[in-house]
């Protein structure tokens, strides 16, 4: 790595607005900007939301530019009394707000195109702090502001997402790229492993990378019953960063083994469907605990119909007998929540749909025990040309998490069965 | 309003985590907390996101408690090396981290319930800064932290939303309420109406309330094929605010008619299941376009099994014939995406499960046309003791939005059918 990579640009994001602060709007702009800045190799020191209040905006701007060189503001550029971003920037810099004649005539032109006069209040959108320049808004009336101030640069963009995206891409991004270094991510996606087991498997690697200054770095993100391993490297360009990632990725893959089902934007359901498709196999699902969510997840994938023939949600016990052909004796002897029943469900649905593979779930989602079995109990059944088997698991959490994790677990049991069938182990 | 209302508690929210800063996760927690704080009459001075970095966390904590009396942190309490919220709090307060024997034994108990040993790394979740106390986590392994420090109080909550919601409600909210003025919301939930139609129906009311100073105020929030009408009033106490809401709510209900299916935390699936249960009716669903999501949504509701007998996902056309008994001639003459087929599906699934009502979906989720029908086409079929009918709709958006809206539309078609059957219209 060369010297330059160590001097990454630091940036912050500041959203202005009570409606974001109090959660009437979720701050998707900050997430989008965070993604963009990460890809441009810009490091973020903080992201914040402040109220529609001139002194509060000015204070947040001053603090942000004390930590970072670049500040990107969103919102507060509209025509109402609550739109105070221009005022806040001017106050922070100790600059006056002056009406810009060019912006004023742009406003008149825009409104006349709509056969309207400019409402008096809208003229504030033509104001700029002395020393700032306007950023063109190709999609709306509020121009942005580029303001070199307090030893850095503040960019004020509109709060409306598509206006903000365009202005950032057209006017801000070109000034950021090429300054710093580039950050490249590789995500390894695991299923069927607890987050702590993933962290444990990679503990030595993480320790060693920390000792080497944290480039590349490894982070763990657990959600919905899956753990993602994110390897991040920084370098002067994409190729150098990728070169740093390669050996770490190879070592992580070796440590995690079949726990890894995919990379980057892969999904577990997509990988399972693709594996089946490669082998010319079809699938049908029988769901009790997951109640349709398993089929729903598989059919999220465009083109799923060439593999997934369909499914049966056998929520009522009678449906397990009538529609899936689970023998009454099996239900009586072992209960609906059992390895025996879930195997019969998988075999039944495979048979009903004439599919290569059958996959079934049964268990206890809660809030109450069922057949004396605890909340979180899951049985997964797999039936295929080589026979049938079941796995039973105990999932943490409450009803929604148990159901979501059960979908992931069922898909992962099938995925591992397909790997084992293939390797003959 | 009395004097007390002018002395509101000031609070800030700080989310810890690179994955939020760089937009891998949208900060929904901050929005939820902002809403809760607003309802509790707490004023927010700032909300922020900081990286997984101990000095950065400590600095953000110190700054926040310089502006506000209450700081609520989310995230960074997990078992991995990246989870540094405890460390950041300790550093900001100049306090040591000490392992708590009670928390240590809680961890052991939780893991033994899952038949697992505590991974070495997880023990860091039993650490607390000296002077802090633990907040119980009823849904996960990470306890929260309550830490009186720097002249205020910091509450560190988990980043996992449902764990955070519970801990905030149980352990933080009771310490906040009663300080300032109170904001009360009433939400009216509509389905089967476009947002613009809802806004149109209430336009005069909105105008009038604006003229009266915006207390109460009406806002529209559209998502997932539904539009919520949020009526917000502010007053010195809950009763006075509720008194302001009542007449506005009555007028809105009159203007929106059967478009309103419920209030506040009602869900469309919950209302449909409750209506069926009241009438002693049962339901079975047949899904093509929605591919399991409709059954999945209904089975989200605890106790759904007393009404929902089950469903059939007939993704492959052959499954529509074999499992649902849709006549081959119907499929040949009208196609799978048609009123005729969806009626036959609803009748077929009603018959197979022996349910009072059958509900079916067919359509085109995209990305490609099907049978020459455009992406977004939806047919909903309803079969019951009084006969069958179909509705066809055209839904906007792409595959994920179309599938989600189709679930809502199907539930709403059934809901309206049940209302009409009941009123005999």
Tell me what the structure shows:
The structure is a homodimer of 425-residue chains. Chain A is built from 15 helices and 17 strands. In chain A, helix 3 (54-67) crosses helix 4. Mean pLDDT of chain A is 90; it is low at 1-7. The two termini of chain A are 44 Å apart. Chain A is of the alpha/beta class. In chain A, a hairpin with an 8-residue loop joins strand 6 and strand 7 (144-149). Chain A has helices at 18-21, 28-39, 54-67, 85-93, 101-113, 161-176, 195-201, 203-211, 238-256, 268-278, 293-298, 317-322, 328-334, 339-353, 399-423, and strands at 10-16, 43-50, 70-74, 97-99, 127-129, 133-135, 144-149, 152-157, 182-191, 217-223, 226-235, 260-263, 283-287, 308-313, 357-363, 377-384, 387-394. Chains A and B meet through helix 2, strand 2, helix 3, helix 7 and helix 8 of A and helix 1, helix 2, strand 2, helix 3 and helix 11 of B.
């Amino acid at each position: 790595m060369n010297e330059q990579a160590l001097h990454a640009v630091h940036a912050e994001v500041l959203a202005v607005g009570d409606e974001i602060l109090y959660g009437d709007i979720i701050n998707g702009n900050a997430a989008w900007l965070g993604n963009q800045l990460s890809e441009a190799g810009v490091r973020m020191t903080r992201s914040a939301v402040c109220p529609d209040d001139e002194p509060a905006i000015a204070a947040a701007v001053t603090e942000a530019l004390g930590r970072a060189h670049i500040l990107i503001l969103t919102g507060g550029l509209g025509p109402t009394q609550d739109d105070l971003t221009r005022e806040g920037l001017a106050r922070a810099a100790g600059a006056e707000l002056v009406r810009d004649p060019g912006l004023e005539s742009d406003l008149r032109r825009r409104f006349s195109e709509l056969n309207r006069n400019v409402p008096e209040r809208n003229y504030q959108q033509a104001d700029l702090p002395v020393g700032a320049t306007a950023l063109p808004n190709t999609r709306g009336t509020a121009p942005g502001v580029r303001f070199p101030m307090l030893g850095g640069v503040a960019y004020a963009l509109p709060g409306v997402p598509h206006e903000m995206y365009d202005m950032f891409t057209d006017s801000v991004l070109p000034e950021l790229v090429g300054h710093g270094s580039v950050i490249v991510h590789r995500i390894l996606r695991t299923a069927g492993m607890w987050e702590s087991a993933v962290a444990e498997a990679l503990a030595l690697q993480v320790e060693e990378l920390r000792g080497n200054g944290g480039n590349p770095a490894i982070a763990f993100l657990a959600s919905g019953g899956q753990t993602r391993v994110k390897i991040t490297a920084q370098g002067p360009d994409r190729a150098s960063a990728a070169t740093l990632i390669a050996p770490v990725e190879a070592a992580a893959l070796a440590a995690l083994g079949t726990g890894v089902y995919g990379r980057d934007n892969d999904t577990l359901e997509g990988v399972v469907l693709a594996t089946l498709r490669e082998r010319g196999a079809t699938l049908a699902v029988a769901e009790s605990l997951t109640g349709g969510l398993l089929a729903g997840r598989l059919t999220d994938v465009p083109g799923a119909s060439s593999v997934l023939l369909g499914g049966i949600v056998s929520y009522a016990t009678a449906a397990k007998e009538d529609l899936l052909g689970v023998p009454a004796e099996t239900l009586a002897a072992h209960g609906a929540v059992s390895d025996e029943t879930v195997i019969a469900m998988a075999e039944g649905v495979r048979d009903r749909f004439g599919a290569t593979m059958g996959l079934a779930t049964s268990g206890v989602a809660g809030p109450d025990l069922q057949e004396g079995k605890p909340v979180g109990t899951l049985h997964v059944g797999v039936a295929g040309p080589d026979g049938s088997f079941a796995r039973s698991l105990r999932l943490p959490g409450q009803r929604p998490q148990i159901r979501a994790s059960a979908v992931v677990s069922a898909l992962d049991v099938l995925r591992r069965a397909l790997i084992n069938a293939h390797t003959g182990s």
